[in-house]
Amino acid sequence: MESSGIREKILHVLGVYPILSPTMLQIGLGTSLPTIEWRPVLEELIAAGLVERDEYSAQTSSGRNYSYTRIRLACDGIGSS
Q1: Exposure of 73 by Cβ count < 10 A (0-12 exposed, 13-18 middle, 19+ buried)?
Q2: How far apart are CA 51 and CA 32, in angstroms?
Q3: Which CATH architecture fits 3-73?
Q4: What global pTM score does this model have?
Q5: φ, ψ for residue 46 (rounded to 5)?
Q6: What would the pLDDT profile of 19-77 be if each residue is shown by its tens digit?
Q7: CB atoms inside a 10 Å sphere around CB 14
Q8: Of 42, 51, 41, nearest to 72 (Cα)?
Q9: Do residues 72 and 20 make contact, with C-beta atoms less than 8 angstroms apart?
């Protein structure tokens, strides 16, 4: 798939599901599209300011630590409200 098609697909998936982990984005894009193809396009979208990425860390009541990478459309991104 061309990078422009991947770009539009990433923006569409993030428009439908506003906050995703990279793993869930993979599911939204379809498992037949390899990470090696869409990851560079995602990095370009982040560099362009259309998509934001952050880390979320928390601790459960039992003291277990966990963290997630979250991606979302930027406030001024395509399709955001």
Answers
A1: buried
A2: 23
A3: Orthogonal Bundle (1.10)
A4: 0.82
A5: -65, -45
A6: 999 999 999 999 899 999 999 999 999 999 999 999 999 999 999 999 999 999 997 54
A7: 26
A8: 51
A9: yes
65-73 and 51-59 strand pairing: antiparallel
Distance CA 35, CA 60 (A): 30
78: amino acid identity, one letter? I
First to last CA, the chain: 28
The answer to whether residues 12 and 73 touch, using CB atoms and an 8 Å cutoff, is no
Asked if 75 contacts 7 with a C-beta cutoff of 8 angstroms, the reply is no
Residue ranges of domains in the chain: 3-73
Quote the CA–CA distance of 45 and 73 in Å, as a whole number: 9
Cα-to-chain-centroid distance, residue 29:
10
Q: Which residues pair with 19 in a beta bridge?
A: 72
Whole-number Å distance between alpha carbons of 42 and 10 = 7
